[in-house]
Amino acid sequence: MKRIFVAALMCLLVGVSPAAAVGCLRGALVGGIIGHYAGHHGFLGAAAGCLYGRHQANEANRASRTVPPAGQSSRW
């Protein structure tokens, strides 16, 4: 259990933006738990979960920025 928190803390230190840190924390928590129960590989699960969480947070951030303002078309 201590390794999960260490991995989450490492992800926090590596993360640059708040969205990346949030995605990393959530992913590391879930990945660490799954990795622990899937063969006592909590650290690897936390690391993979952190990367996947950051990816999902970046995708959500990118999708929210590409929505055009109300009343304007997306064409030039």
Q: Give the class from helix and strand content and strand pairing.
A: mainly alpha
Give the beta-strand count.
Answer: 0
Question: What is the terminal-to-terminal distance?
Answer: 53 Å
Radius of gyration from the CA trace? 16 Å
Strand % is: under 5%
The largest sheet is:
none
Q: Provide a count of the helices.
A: 3
The tally of structural domains comes to 1
Low-confidence stretches at least 5 residues in length (pLDDT < 50)? none
Encode the helix/strand succession as letters. HHH
Mean pLDDT: 76
Question: Which features would summarize this protein structure in a list?
Answer:
mainly alpha; 75% helix; 0% strand; 76 residues
List the helices and strands and how they pair.
Blueprint (H helix, E strand, L loop, with lengths): L1 H13 L3 H20 L4 H24 L11
Helix pairs in contact: 1-2, 1-3, 2-3
Protein architecture, described:
The protein has 76 residues and is mainly α. The protein has one domain (2-64). Helix content is 75%, strand content 0%. It has 3 helices and no strands. The longest helix has 24 residues, at 42-65. The chain is elongated and about 55 Å long. The model has no long low-confidence stretch (mean pLDDT 76).
